Amino acid sequence: MNFKIHIEKERCKGCGYCINACLQAVLKMSKALNLKGNHFPEVEKSDACTGCRRCASMCPDTAIKISKVYSESDNKTSAEKK
Ligand code: SF4
Ligand code: SF4
Question: Which residue puts its alpha carbon closest to atom 4 of ligand 1?
């Protein structure tokens, strides 16, 4: 199972809390600016994401959401378990 990290960059104020909260160093600060003139996080190593949601829970502006992505191998695994 993988996880998709959704970052609403226009909500971001560039505080960096999410980047510091991620123990897997999945996120890094962009060089680009949003319309408010803030740097925002980008996903650097999506494969390393464990889905812990620390980043999302630390964000004061609810700019990050994490969702599960199921692959075919997940289906096979669950079918084999039955
Ligand atoms: S869900 Fe956890 S591992 Fe994934 S980017 Fe957020 S803090 Fe990092
Ligand atoms: S915690 Fe939220 S507001 Fe702060 S840098 Fe991350 S996404 Fe932006």
Answer: 49
